[in-house]
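Obj.: predict assembly geometry.
Materials: sequence records (below).
Method: joint structure prediction, all chains together.
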Amino acid sequence: MNSFNRLIEIFSDFPGIGPRQAKRFVYFLLTKPPAYTGELLRAIENLKNNTQTCSSCYRIFNKNGGMATLCSICSDRNRDHSLLAVVSRDSDLESLEKSGSYNGLYFVLGGIVPILENDPEKYVRSRELFTSVEKRIGDGLTEVILAMSANADSENTGQFVDRLLVPFKERGLKISLLGRGLSTGTELEYSDADTLRNALKNRK
Amino acid sequence: MNSFNRLIEIFSDFPGIGPRQAKRFVYFLLTKPPAYTGELLRAIENLKNNTQTCSSCYRIFNKNGGMATLCSICSDRNRDHSLLAVVSRDSDLESLEKSGSYNGLYFVLGGIVPILENDPEKYVRSRELFTSVEKRIGDGLTEVILAMSANADSENTGQFVDRLLVPFKERGLKISLLGRGLSTGTELEYSDADTLRNALKNRK
Amino acid sequence: MNSFNRLIEIFSDFPGIGPRQAKRFVYFLLTKPPAYTGELLRAIENLKNNTQTCSSCYRIFNKNGGMATLCSICSDRNRDHSLLAVVSRDSDLESLEKSGSYNGLYFVLGGIVPILENDPEKYVRSRELFTSVEKRIGDGLTEVILAMSANADSENTGQFVDRLLVPFKERGLKISLLGRGLSTGTELEYSDADTLRNALKNRK
Amino acid sequence: MNSFNRLIEIFSDFPGIGPRQAKRFVYFLLTKPPAYTGELLRAIENLKNNTQTCSSCYRIFNKNGGMATLCSICSDRNRDHSLLAVVSRDSDLESLEKSGSYNGLYFVLGGIVPILENDPEKYVRSRELFTSVEKRIGDGLTEVILAMSANADSENTGQFVDRLLVPFKERGLKISLLGRGLSTGTELEYSDADTLRNALKNRK
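Observations (raw structure tokens):
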């Protein structure tokens, strides 16, 4: 297949992009001077060289030329090492960081376990999480927060992690789930039964 | 003003209706036979005669020809009389009933107190609520649930009710707020800081 | 059935209104003082008394206390009596008037003939149109414009009217259709084949 | 700037992509194996080598290993060489081809001339168009179709091309514009005055 059509195919794989927009990307690139395309190529080529997966939380971070294997959060002594928030993706971690409400550590699972999936290990870093929690318990970890979105597959992922970490519960580890209830903007009149049930149960 | 234009004006007052749709309503009525319009007129005319505002919770209910002044919820001995959910509108009450998660009583405020409003009593049944809570405390009421939507004006309404009921707190009345956190479908990546803060705080 | 539920049913018939919004209308009316409801009742009651269907174009107009049977357009000697725009509804007529581009007369069919309908006369004023055109031809009518929206049922309605008026074509009456092509805002990239075909055919 | 942030910036330039989706693209690429990224890089690198700008209509086409400088449309003897559709972009050309209603030739301007722009030549291939029309007139060209979208800037582009080609009008070249009117799906009730004016003017 020629590069034109192949590139449309590849861009169609990008998250949220269909064939029509993929084609517009290709036409867009064709109108750009070689300097632009060259910079795009270099940025893609260097992307993995310039970034590093944190050896502790598996978050991706910029190396900025350094040799660090720990990200800025994991190496920050002022963070609360008794808390570990388990998230599905880097974007969830960023969202929690931006909220300014969390000062503990993270673990990035790298995916979501679909409901009824027989081989959950294929989707998430389950061994790495197990090892990491084991090690961190010695370092003062007391609570793992399952920081999952409120949809079926994400909840299933949380349940998988919960089962995975059962052995540590006996050793006193607390496993918690993000609170459910009314999120900002929720109108009672248009709320589903589940949200109302949680809002009532978690009233305070 | 003639009836045609006056009716457009009145329909434009209806919740969610602009002048263009109001005009379509009027044209719609003009195409209908007298029997249809007659039934509409009778239904509007009898609406208040056939309905009753509950003397206890101020909810509107169908009289169905009866003489009851108490609605079916307030007169139901199987409901939990220790709980009183204060809601803004009948539609909020209906939503909670449909969820099947609440078995206490209700009080319908009849409105929302806008932020920075100096005269909140204009908007809600504050005296009626005060009297009702006073009386119910003798009947076993132990908790008032502020069941408000999660927006600025509704939260302001909740705070107003909270202040109003301060005298009863000293007598042991608990005042609670619907739980905040992730509602069904909430994605971490797209959540606002407030929702994430609440979800973290209310984790369990 | 009680008035509360019957009124919800009736409002659910209104164009664009579902049961949920219909219920909000009913609650809205219940919060209003008798003076408001009274005015609504009077406006609905007088609607047909205060309006008149034009004896010539079947448009609805305000009587404003007068005895006229002809609407302001039909009785306006400055309008071009050689042109007759046949529209489905009053709202289409209003839209053409607002455009300021048409100075002829109108005929309001009062409906749309669905595709594959065997009994089109049920839906539109076909006899009245026939009679009206016959009479107007003597008064100088030379062209009937089928002013229909560009969707399947409306086009079918146009074809029905076209067949209905065949006898007058032999007597020299021109029957025209609104031009097809790019409407304001149409992007070539997102246009359907039909629109492009018409835009090419009708280029000038 | 590091590749991570630079790549987000570059993707944010892509048509229809904001910073948030650009970031998702970068995270997406980071999860992909080197084979995938490698193929993307090759496809971008070879894009211009594998495509060719047609020397006649300036359309981009796949070389498929050949040495042709004329695209398949320009070299097709069965196309109607008396018609030349001037379009802004390749995607407009594709849309017209897909409609199956046009069998003439094309010229791709490569852009749009914004309203009130003093230097229109910066935006479109005006010299190339002039030369091309001059040459084609000798080859039987009789009509140039300004095939522009129906928005302000595109119409301005059409007017610019119209002025540019004035010298050829004296030599008998016809310059036409795509027809305006109702496009598929247009409802009279919701149409703007311009569309209705055109639909009336272009009735037939």
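Conclusions so far: Chain B has a mean pLDDT of 94.
To do: check interface contacts against the pulldown list.
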